[in-house]
Amino acid sequence: MLCVHGCLVGWILLAVLVPGHQYQRLNSKPNSHSNPGLRSDCLGNVMRITLDKDLAVGSQLEIEAINGSDIIQLSSTLAAQCGYSMESDPWGNTKIFASLSGCYVFNQADATFQLGLRLRMYGDNLPQPVEYEVTKMCSYSPWASREVLCDRNYMEVSTLMVPTVTPVKAFKGHRFQQESLSNAIPDAISAPNSIWKMAFHTPEMKVMVLEDFLISGYGAMTTPKRLVLRSPYNMPETYSEEVAGVPMEVFSVSTYYKEISGLTVMDSVAACPTGGVLFTDEAITWHVPRRVSPLISGSVKILETHMGIDGQRLDKAKMSARHYRLSVTSTHVVIEIPVGSPDGYYKSHALNEEYHVTFTIEPMLEFVWKADNTQADTRYKVLFPITTPMMLRPPQVIDYTIPEQKVFDVLLGPFLHDVELLNFNFSVGVLTVAESNSRGFDVQEHRFANGSKTFSLRVPFSDEVVQKHNPDPLTTSYFLLMVFGLLILPEQTPFQYLAEVEASLEDVVIPTITGTCDQKNFYASVKYGSGGANFQTMLLNAGSWRELDSDLAKLYHLTENSTHFSIIVPHLSPDSTFEVVHSNSILARLELLLVQIPNMWKLNDFSLACFFPLTTTECYSNGTMTALAVKVESVGNLNPEHLTLRDQSCKPAFSSDRFALFSFNLNSCGTTRTFFDNLMVYENEIAMHRSTSKQSSADPEYRHIVSCYYLTNDTKTMDFLTTPRINDPIADPGVGHLVVQMTLSKDASYDAFYQTEDYPVVKYLREPLYFEVALMQSTDSQIQLVLENCWATLHDDRTSVPSWDLIVDSCENLDDRYLTVFHPVSADARIQVPSHVKHFSIKMFTFTRDETVVKGQVFVHCEAVLCDTTKPDGICSGQCANPQRNANPSRPTSTKRGRRAAEAGQQQKRQVSSGLILLSDSSNETI
Ligand SMILES: *[C@@H]1O[C@H](CO)[C@@H](O)[C@H](O)[C@H]1NC(C)=O
Ligand SMILES: *[C@@H]1O[C@H](CO)[C@@H](O)[C@H](O)[C@H]1NC(C)=O
Ligand SMILES: *[C@@H]1O[C@H](CO)[C@@H](O)[C@H](O)[C@H]1NC(C)=O
Ligand SMILES: *[C@@H]1O[C@H](CO)[C@@H](O)[C@H](O)[C@H]1NC(C)=O
Ligand SMILES: *[C@@H]1O[C@H](CO)[C@@H](O)[C@H](O)[C@H]1NC(C)=O
Ligand SMILES: *[C@@H]1O[C@H](CO)[C@@H](O)[C@H](O)[C@H]1NC(C)=O
């Protein structure tokens, strides 16, 4: 858009609201000479009055002309008709131009000119108008024959009236006869200023009397020597014409006026440019036709050219300092002005929410030419305010953020001086600049020397307005979205600028896990990382992960504080994974996994394996064995319920998804028994067989050998574990007791026995004593009990002397006068395995020393051997199967007992003793 004269919107200033204190200071009527804010200048044929913005108050400015005692208010039409123009920039800086040929200017001999103006400012906030009065005197001389003045709102031509004029003048093909006109309109003589009537050339002729001319808005007057005519732009009687490519408005009039010498016709033409400006971002180029052809009929010579700003001519030095250029080509006079020159001003605009600027400057072109034929000179002066089109100036966001400092550092700009930062619209809402600063953001305005400004903002990453997310487990991305709320002054036009900045930092501290075990539980503690408790905890359960939900948290006694949580997981809980089972321990593992939500990234994992005590096999002395089969993780498809012993009809007494408990008698369920040198081993196998496969029994998927082994003295358990993976059987025997018991029957029927409380038992001399020695509880029919040695002692110490052999090397002592007798044993309700039991009897006797009865009491002791009936050998061939018939009659001695005891130590022997047997007082027989 080309904006020249048409841009003057009105005569009334609509602008500035200025704080009241300035108004207070100015409410007086300051003398124009003493007030630097109000200046007046004489600029050739115009006078300029400037009012500084600091003096502009209120919202309206009216200008009144002072003509003697008359005060005439200048409306915009009257101003254009009378040679006044006014323009204010957005801040209230005001220029008033007055033509020296204008109305209300006191003209002395076309040489000095005096003007008085009154400036009145009104506003809603002003109790009464503020007024300034300016009076100025200017001298201007000499005038050119013709002076054409183009101001923003009018075209003016002032022509020297030549005293002797040719009565008839050729003018564009029209001829007028002086006499005939004078005769036709007799009252022309008495018209004001002696002007009678005007004829417009539009280009058609249109005639008006002076009164109509003035009423139509045109200006006409005579001065001592000159005729001045004036027209606003775009009047019905003016017309447009393009001259050398430049649009121009032409005002062309022939004036009839009365002189002493008679009626004279004078032709006046003003032609003013309304265009001819080219813009680039850097420069304004203004073309004016070199030959303003409506004003010129013959050839002319340019005498002077001047460039000025705001009506004021500039000298060469000033022009070059400002990089202005004035050049004359064959067709044009050209003025070049850099955009941004200090003589103009920038203005901000928000157009479609986008930031634009315009630049406004008012150059002046003045040139003088002389017509070759008439030697008449013409001064041609154009005051030409130019505003560039809207120039898009999107501000830049410069991101100075250094992520490590954890603060967003953003700069927005540049903006012109007329832009203010009001507020920010953040994700949490709108914060003013003051609120932002008190929240800890650092908002600053930075000004450049040229008046431009930028705004900087620092926002800590930690603030709520910064959004955070994690692109990967270790990185946090910080994102700040803000809308700068800006305001263009003085018109208070709001506009917004949206900016986004993002920064990434590897600042995630991941949670860590520690743990310990005791004999029963795992103890795990999780220390939160930078994300706090914002993660999910998973537990490895049967090979897959499950979330530690509130139920599990309760089950595992979860405790937490602001930085940690801990759980206690029992070693046999479902979330414990069994790795290996040994006979008395289990290696179990707890696994935890921490995952980030919502991305489900693995943050950390933790695995803790501990041995916990666990008895899997127990061997009881009554011949029962219990064995616990545990499903370990290497046999994931194992179903404990389907485990069996060798005899596949022997199923678990109890089973769950991870355990099977077997309880069985050692002579059942396919249990095998093996004798080694000094052990007896029972063995069975827990296995799972593929029920459908024919090869199942040959190749079970799972094998677990369980065994119990017995020493003569002790019952030992041994547990062999074999699984497909672990080839390393681990044996760790447990201890039990094999019970061999000696009892004294009340008679030969072996039906009733003396009990512990019956001792000491009292017997008559030579009364038979019926002994039973039995392996208790065991039901293994392949064991035979053989009595190797039995002897009697006076004292309860079995090794004491004196002693007397009753059975030697499994046979009766042949030396014994009171012969020991073996009695057969047969099965009955009480005796299930006869080979486990031996019956023998002796006759009650008494020890003597030197033929006297030492003491009427006896203890009987036996050494019993447990034999494998499948391997009969030596003693184990049977009770007195190979009698040696030792004929040695000597009394048993402690030496002999000791030797035998030593020999017995090599074998699987069990020693039993009777309680005290007393000799009845009624008997006195000795052996
Ligand atoms: C200004 O005042 C003078 C005399 O005081 C008068 O002759 C003249 O017509 C006035 N001008 C206007 C335009 O009123
Ligand atoms: C702030 O921005 C949000 C989202 O862009 C918008 O919905 C809201 O209207 C804005 N608030 C103001 C006061 O501009
Ligand atoms: C003012 O100066 C700054 C910095 O030199 C520059 O970025 C900006 O464009 C200038 N503004 C104008 C309006 O020339
Ligand atoms: C939280 O508990 C952990 C141990 O579980 C302890 O080390 C830490 O000091 C506790 N922190 C607070 C703030 O109580
Ligand atoms: C063997 O003894 C164990 C442990 O005392 C007991 O649980 C089991 O029932 C007994 N077995 C028989 C067959 O008596
Ligand atoms: C029998 O066991 C006891 C105690 O366990 C032990 O002191 C003794 O030596 C053992 N005897 C034999 C013959 O093994």
UniProtKB/TrEMBL annotation:
<feature type="domain" description="ZP">
    <location>
        <begin position="618"/>
        <end position="883"/>
    </location>
</feature>
<dbReference type="Pfam" id="PF26562">
    <property type="entry name" value="Ig-like"/>
</dbReference>
<dbReference type="InterPro" id="IPR055356">
    <property type="entry name" value="ZP-N"/>
</dbReference>
<feature type="compositionally biased region" description="Polar residues">
    <location>
        <begin position="883"/>
        <end position="893"/>
    </location>
</feature>
<dbReference type="Pfam" id="PF23344">
    <property type="entry name" value="ZP-N"/>
</dbReference>
<keyword id="KW-1003">Cell membrane</keyword>
<dbReference type="InterPro" id="IPR058876">
    <property type="entry name" value="Ig-like_ZP"/>
</dbReference>
<feature type="signal peptide">
    <location>
        <begin position="1"/>
        <end position="22"/>
    </location>
</feature>
<dbReference type="InterPro" id="IPR055355">
    <property type="entry name" value="ZP-C"/>
</dbReference>
<keyword id="KW-1015">Disulfide bond</keyword>
<dbReference type="GO" id="GO:0005576">
    <property type="term" value="C:extracellular region"/>
</dbReference>
<keyword id="KW-0732">Signal</keyword>
<dbReference type="InterPro" id="IPR017977">
    <property type="entry name" value="ZP_dom_CS"/>
</dbReference>
<keyword id="KW-0964">Secreted</keyword>
<dbReference type="GO" id="GO:0005886">
    <property type="term" value="C:plasma membrane"/>
</dbReference>
<keyword id="KW-0472">Membrane</keyword>
<keyword id="KW-0325">Glycoprotein</keyword>
<feature type="region of interest" description="Disordered">
    <location>
        <begin position="883"/>
        <end position="927"/>
    </location>
</feature>
<protein>
    <recommendedName>
        <fullName>ZP domain-containing protein</fullName>
    </recommendedName>
</protein>
<dbReference type="InterPro" id="IPR048290">
    <property type="entry name" value="ZP_chr"/>
</dbReference>
<dbReference type="InterPro" id="IPR001507">
    <property type="entry name" value="ZP_dom"/>
</dbReference>
<dbReference type="Pfam" id="PF00100">
    <property type="entry name" value="Zona_pellucida"/>
</dbReference>
<feature type="compositionally biased region" description="Polar residues">
    <location>
        <begin position="905"/>
        <end position="927"/>
    </location>
</feature>
<dbReference type="InterPro" id="IPR042235">
    <property type="entry name" value="ZP-C_dom"/>
</dbReference>
